[in-house]
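Late entry, pyridoxal-5'-phosphate complex.
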Amino acid sequence: MRYLFGPGPTQVEPGVYQAMTQTLVGHLDPYFFEVVEDVRKGLREVYGTKNDFTLAISGTGSAGMETAVSNFVEAGSKFAVFVAGYFAERICDMGKRHGANVVRAEKGWGETFSDDEARDFIRRERPSLVAFVHAETSTGALQRPNAICEAAHEVGALAITDAVTSLGGIPVQIDDAGVDIAYSCTQKGLSCPPGLSPITLSPRALERLDARGRVNDVWYLDLGLLREYYERSHRYHHTAPITAFYALQEALRLIHAEGVENRWKRHQEAHRELVRGIEAMGLEMYVPEGQRIPTLNTVRVPAGVDDAKVRSRLLNECGIEISGGFGPLAGKIFRIGVMGPLATKERVAFFLDAFKKILQA
Ligand SMILES: *Cc1c(COP(=O)(O)O)cnc(C)c1O
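Prediction complete; structure with ligand written out below:
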């Protein structure tokens, strides 16, 4: 038995495993496209969007990231990225590989950008595309999206948000925030195994896509071709991972049955419970209150404690997986995910008991 209290993959609902045992149908079967439509509907609900163009890309969160970047950067175009952690670095790397002129707003790992900082940077640089990470999994910090998106629109740019860790566990509210392109994954806030990357495009992003005077240099992630397969002629593009769609369909059905607002509330309460327990143990959270991702908690490793040893004992003796820091935060933080079926008072108490026992030993 494993309890997945890390940043992902996270604990899978038993009903989702069950759904994955359904008989395979073909990737061009009308029944498969019914499943696809159901998934698209469920994704609009968790994304908080009316965007018609909402799909699940075959691949993990990084495939969604590369879909967003490769379809919307043009060679030599200015791509502004807010960087305060590892995943924003990955976006920059992809931007460069696709020929963009990447300009960075930079802060230390774990910090966030204020509304003024966001506006100043975008007004100064006047990019055609902006990207930021909503929930930076490498640090535990949550970036407010609204000012970034507003400023992007002011200069005629599109705003990309990485919602890989946030989707399903906390509100992402694509339409309210004014996000144009968002991508995520199945194995974090949605409580599924890895394999698909939900993506959504605003009407404004769709217009830009239709107006581009080139094809995507990545054939597999070309949204024009994927649209033809999933939405229009249903012409073969690639063999979609049918079983992963069954899993996502069931996960979204469970979220809808619980009520998406109830789910967010449950995650928020589990987060508060965890922080209370962590602080009662005399430990410190890494990110200041008010800027934390409720579903991915980063805790400072106390002086004199070997974090790798704690993590391996938790895994071997208690079946609990948590994660450590990396890059500038290696050895400095624990990363503790409280998501899906583990986001309950009982499971959090179970985790805290084990964590305390191992830390004291
Ligand atoms: C996990 C993660 C990714 C990458 O997703 P994979 O599924 O590992 O490819 C991208 N961005 C963020 C913020 C993540 O947490």
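Residues 260-280 form the longest helix (21 residues). Will revisit in the morning.
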